[in-house]
Amino acid sequence: MNQRFEAFLAVAECRSMQRAAEQQCVSYQCISGHIRSLEEEYHTKLFERRPVFALTESGRILMESLQKIRLIEQGIGEALDDQGKAVVGHVKIGVPFSRYSEIVPPILACFKREYPNVELEISGDFSDVLEQQVERGLLDMALVVQQAGGSEKLERKTLLQEHYSFLISQPLLTSVIGESGAELAESWRKNGITLREISRFPLVSAPAGSRLRAILDAAAKKQGLSFRIVFSSNRLETFDAIARTDLAGCLLPKQMTALTQRLDRNERPEKRLLILPVDWEGTAIDSDVALIRHREAVFPAYKQRLMRILEEQFQTVGREA
Fold first, then answer.
1. Is the pLDDT of residue 237 over 70?
2. The pTM is what?
3. Do residues 172 and 310 both lie within one domain?
């Protein structure tokens, strides 16, 4: 792709000529000159300057066309590189913040055994942000907690139908419920704990803006409940650590309770956290985990293999659920 197109894409994606110039390590005048040259060549205005800097319809069409070309060019180069005996390359994958520690280590170990010379760059963010980055070609693929709708430019494959668990310490259970807590816990283990019952306890939650928090808030609104959120975090270790202080319980996808199960193996029975299945009482939750990629992207063999490794990893989780 030539310099003018690269300059235009930088401006279109940054929505700022100054930020695009900084990103491209060139002067503002250089970026401005490339944009002016394209507008003169195609006899159309690509950006509105006032009242806010924004793409025109012609600019939007050019941006989407160039993003497709960028994906194709990247794929062609990588596919040709993949023909060598010692495969080298670079893969950019996005993973939700809260699942990073459970997903990344096994995937990284498996992939690097097969492709030791391919750099695996893993970014953590909220699912919404990861989807935008895949659509713009900034990530090759991403694992996301999907929701209804979504961009038609992205290809999605559901890897896991999510189940949820509620983690709580035995002292906190007793302090809120009383002596009947142990009996209730046994019933919840078999039948699940409802959101109404969970609302009696203080909670650690994922931060506002995350899919996990959105799922919890939507279910609470539908059932007319309110939760006492005492702490927000996107780190799995924090959820477990705070639950062990007896200050709050936490609601997590079942996949994310593996850390708690590992830590409990070294604890005395009375110090172990209770892991209770959640009964949503018929409330539909839109939280399947999906693997997404751009429909126009051309993947060399090593990227296709990484996708298969991800699918295999989640198949294992699904069998254990």
1. yes
2. 0.65
3. no
